[in-house]
Design goal:
With 176 residues, the protein is mainly alpha-helical. The protein has a domain of 112 residues. It is 64% helix and 0% strand. The chain is elongated. The chain starts with 36 loop residues before the first helix and ends with a helix. Keywords: Membrane, Transmembrane, Transmembrane helix.
Amino acid sequence: MIGAVTDDRAPATPSDEPRPEPVRFFGTSWVAHGSGYLVRRVAVAAGALLAVAAGVLVMWLAVSGVMISGAGAFVNVLLVAAVLVCSCLAAARTWRILTAGRETLDGWMADDRALGPIRIVGWVGTLAAYFVRSLAEAPGEAAARARHRAALAAYERRRSARSGRPGAAKRRGRRG
């Protein structure tokens, strides 16, 4: 069926036209917002919200365990501040990846190895950013859509440059 959109495939296109990249949990249904796109968005948002709630519970238990141990007020405040800062940094990085793409990361956000500990401590922030982004669109859809539109524009430029009668241009050039 020509032009049909399925869950895991893009609309039928000529073989040389760029195809959209699949987005996690959505395949290529994000292109035309078809094939259960809204249901998937609701399910992803609900799953991310449940994961955030579970993560907050786990982090609360961990911080409570340190507070019960009697380590002191300074250690307790330092621990809570570290978890909050790491969660905020992880959420900011995840938000940027989901909206603009991984290739736009620069500075401290681009260094995956250095951010490992921050992402481990701030994983709840990553889940929270994923949840909030899923309320607006499929997480990662904006970046995938921008890349797909750029690829389609480049394809159209290449295709229009080849259109017409290329043989006529060669003959015109020889006469001069």
